[in-house]
Amino acid sequence: MEEQKNNSREMEGFEDVQIDDNTTQKQKQDSKPKDQSGDLKQKRTRVRKDRKKKQQDGVAQEKYDELNDKYLRLFSEFDNFRKRTLKEKIELSKTASEDVIKALLPVVDDFERALQAMEGQHAPEATVEGINLIYNKLIKTLQQKGLAEMKALNETFNTDFHEALTNIPAPEPELKGKVLDVIQKGYLLNGKVIRFARVVVGN
């Protein structure tokens, strides 16, 4: 009887252990799906965050490209404006005195006529030298401002530089189409024609 009681007690203890083991296994099985569902939620959250971040990065990149393009266009326009303004200033500085120099050209012509007349009339040397000094000083001053006399005599007639007053038969075949005489000198100011040379052309 005592043995049966002991055996029954042992069996009861064994059953309790089995029940506890079963309960623990069930709890583990129940906890697995919960853990897996939690991992899935975290993964989905990460995916959503990554997508949102990529979208934000894409928008930011588009905005950056747009602003960069505007900046490059603006810089290019400003650089062109600066170069154009600088070129205009240089051209203006070169030709700023054009009107004054044009007004002085008839004075130069008068000086040259006066010198030619005095040479033919045997004027006093002192007078001729004095006028020559004044004339040379005036010419040098004008040359420093960019004035240059145009070469015309015996040059091929060119409408960009010459103005034909009349045509005469050329004394020699090689002089056809060339300037035979200069009635009025032409002048350039820093490479720009400010007065055409009035010439006689051979034909």
Notable traits:
three-stranded antiparallel sheet; 14% strand; 67% helix; 6 strands; 203 residues; alpha+beta
Describe the SSE topology.
Blueprint: H1 2-95, H2 98-120, H3 125-144, E1 147-149, E2 162-168, E3 179-184, E4 187-189, E5 192-195, E6 197-202
Parallel strand pairs: 2-6
Antiparallel strand pairs: 1-4, 3-6, 4-5
Helix pairs in contact: 2-3
Description:
The protein is α+β, with helices and mostly antiparallel strands and 203 residues long. The chain has 3 helices and 6 strands. It has helices at 2-95, 98-120, 125-144; strands spanning 147-149, 162-168, 179-184, 187-189, 192-195, 197-202. The strands form 2 sheets. Strands 1-4-5 form a 3-stranded antiparallel sheet. It has a 3-stranded mixed sheet with strand order 2-6-3, with no helix packed on it. A hairpin with a 2-residue loop joins β4 and β5 (192-195). α2 runs antiparallel to α3. The longest helix is centred in the N-terminal third of the chain and has 94 residues, at 2-95. It is elongated, with a radius of gyration of 53 Å. It starts with a helix and ends with a strand. The model is unreliable at 2-7 and 13-19 (pLDDT under 50).
